[in-house]
Each structure stands twice: as C-alpha cells, then as structure tokens.
Write a structure and sequence with these properties.
This protein is of the alpha/beta class. It folds into 2 domains: about 190 residues, Response regulator (Rossmann fold, 3-Layer(aba) Sandwich); about 150 residues, 3-Layer(aba) Sandwich (Rossmann fold). About 45% of the residues lie in helices and about 20% in strands. The protein has a 7-stranded mixed beta sheet, with helices on both faces. The chain has a 6-stranded mixed beta sheet with strand order 8-7-9-10-11-13, sandwiched between helices. Strand 4, helix 7 and strand 5 form a beta-alpha-beta unit. The longest helix has 21 residues.
Length: about 350
C-alpha cells in the first residue's frame, strides 16, 4: 500500500536524523513502551508495499486486518485521572475490537516526540496523542501526515495547525478554570489569599486551570501567596504548603490543579492542625473528581472539585471507525461535557456516578 511504502521511506530518513540530532530513540522511547500487540515488522511492511504498489489501499477494517494504533500518553502513575484514562484506552483498543495497540508513556515532551517518531517508523495506521506540552509538535505530525498516518488528539490540545490531525477529543481546560474561579468568587470571602499549586508547566490542563485564576489576580479580586508547580505530585504539593506555613504567611484558599496535589496540601494542613473544608479556616479546591476526592467533599473536608473526564476512548473509536468506513468526521474538536462539585450540595449519587 502507498501509505506503507511512504512510512518505510520516511523511517530510513528519520533514523539518520535521530542519530544526528535526537540522541538514542531506543533509549528514550523503548523503556516507556508497553505493547499490547507489536506493530508489523518493517520488512513485512516493505514486502506488502512492493506487492501492492499498483493497487489502491484498502481500509484495514474492510480487509479484516487489525488497525494498528500507537498511543502516546502521560505516565499512568501521574494521578488517579491518568490511571483511569489509561485503563479506558486499554479496554477499547483490543484485538477483539479490531485493533493492535502499542503504548508509550512520558511526562516529557521530547520523550513523547521520540516515541511518536518510532511509531511513524513502525508504520502504524493511527497515532493517538495526549501531549505533555502544547508546543513543539508541528514537525513530527507533519512527518506522520507525509507517511499517511492519521493523528487523533485526546485529553489535551496542542498548538498546531488543525490540518495536522483528524480530530481533537478534549476537555475545555479554560472552562474548567473559569468554573472553579467563579465558584470561588461566589464564596464571598472578605479577602482571598491563595496558595496556587500548579500542574506540569506548559500542559493544557495547567494553562487552562491557571488562566482564570491569573485573570482574577490581575483584576485585583484575589491575592497569590505563592504560585508553584508540584507537577501533579502530592508530596511536592505538601512541601509547598508546608513552606508557606513555616513562613508564617496568611492564607485561606488552596487552589490545587489536581486532586493528588490537593491531597498533599491537606496533609500539610493536618500536620499543622489547620482546619479545612466547609465552614473551616481554609478552602480546599481540586480537579479530576477521583472518587476518593469527592468523598472528601461529601464529608465536608474539601470544598470544591472540578470534573475532568478521562473517558475519551469511545469517541476515538468512533472517529477511527468513521474514517475506516470512508466517512467524514463531522466535528474537528469534540469537547467533553463537565461540571464542578460543591461540598454543600454534592450527594452520594454524585460520588457514585462521577467519581473515577
């Protein structure tokens, strides 16, 4: 097939490029790769290209062949959200559902790009991407396009021309931040002294959840006591809050950009015997709606949790099946519907329904 021949030719070019300027692709990508089904060997792909060079490519689904997908995601241990996201993908992209899937994980953009280059060399049919950073993707996605590989974004957006990907199935991170900050404004505090704990800098989630709070600070509506990244990590968040406590600075809000960091922040508050939650000294806010976090809301120990649904795989599957059947994807950007939860109104049904 023509796409396979292009993939093989591009692979040879990229191997040379990686030796010159990118270091060892095997060293960076292979240890982070978890293959549910190995992609077709390059020799087999080349033979298929030679045998069918004069024939028009037949969709994999129509021919009965497995559709090969390379899935690049953030570390599943990053958070409860990411664990659920990875599980959802692995339950969908199975041989029983017509797929041969390989997975690569990293919280670093350069390592993800190296993994993408390897998947392109392998000649996958689709590249699925949850980018660690919003920038730096144009070149490798153009390589994928030149090789006839279709790209689908999930979970996070990137700063790249829309022509480089088929669809983007994502949360509206900016809206998540706006919903949370509007809720905080509605609490009617005399003053807002906020410890702002950020996620991995440059990620779509960090940018979206930071933006609305920054705007409120710039408008003079809130004060930032400290604004630091804990990179989604509970222990780092605990250290940040502990440092503020030790400094003696006054604060009454913890705005953590995911549940794990909120959990770490609360550990520091508990250690210092500082009350938190409904009607207490410090408002605690998180994101992702892990079930255990919503239970903290239900108990009144936290105040707010913003939903960020990790279940994008069924949407991706639908997009791929549409393309494979010769159809047209009706929406370039598919936004997941999400909400925010208040400790004073959340119910057990909410916990059971929305907790991940």
């Amino acid at each position: 097939m023509l796409r396979k021949k292009l993939a093989v030719l591009l692979a040879a070019t990229m191997v040379v490029a990686s030796i010159v300027g990118c270091g060892s692709a095997e060293e960076a990508a292979a240890p982070a790769t978890d293959s549910a089904e190995e992609a077709a060997p390059a020799d087999d792909a080349a033979a298929a290209a030679d045998d069918g060079a004069a024939e028009e490519a037949e969709p994999a689904a129509a021919s009965g062949e497995l559709i090969t997908v390379g899935i690049i995601n953030n570390d599943p241990n990053e958070s409860g959200y990411r664990t659920a996201n990875d599980k959802d993908l692995k339950e969908t992209f199975t041989e029983e559902n017509g797929y041969s899937a390989s997975f690569a994980y990293s919280l670093k953009n350069d390592e993800q790009i190296t993994a993408a280059q390897k998947f392109i060399q392998d000649g996958v049919d689709y590249l699925l991407l949850s980018a660690a950073d919003t920038s730096g993707w144009d070149s490798v996605l153009k390589d994928a396009q030149d090789a006839g590989i279709r790209v689908i974004l999930f979970d996070r957006t990137i700063d790249a021309d829309e022509s480089l990907y088929e669809a983007s199935i994502v949360s509206d991170m900016a809206k998540e931040g706006e919903t949370a900050v509007n809720w905080l404004k509605g609490q009617g505090l005399d003053e807002y002294n906020v410890i702002h704990i950020q996620g991995v800098m440059g990620s779509a989630a960090q940018q979206g959840r930071t933006g609305a709070l920054d705007a409120a600070v710039e408008a003079g509506e809130m004060n930032i006591v400290t604004q630091q990244t804990a990179e989604w990590n509970a222990e780092k968040a605990q250290q940040i809050v502990q440092s503020v406590i030790d400094s003696g600075e006054s604060f009454n809000v913890i705005y953590a950009e995911n549940d794990d960091m909120a959990k770490g922040a609360v550990a520091a508050l508990d250690k210092a015997n500082i009350s938190h939650g409904v009607g207490k000294d410090v408002i605690v806010m998180g994101f992702d709606c892990n079930k255990w976090a919503l239970e903290e809301l239900l108990a009144g120990n936290w105040n707010y949790d913003g939903q960020c649904t990790p279940f994008q795989s069924s949407y991706i599957d639908e997009v791929i099946k549409t393309i494979e059947s010769g159809g047209t994807v009706s929406e370039k950007v598919i936004i997941m519907e999400e909400k925010g939860f208040d400790a004073t109104t959340i119910t057990q049904e909410d916990v059971d329904t929305y907790g991940i």
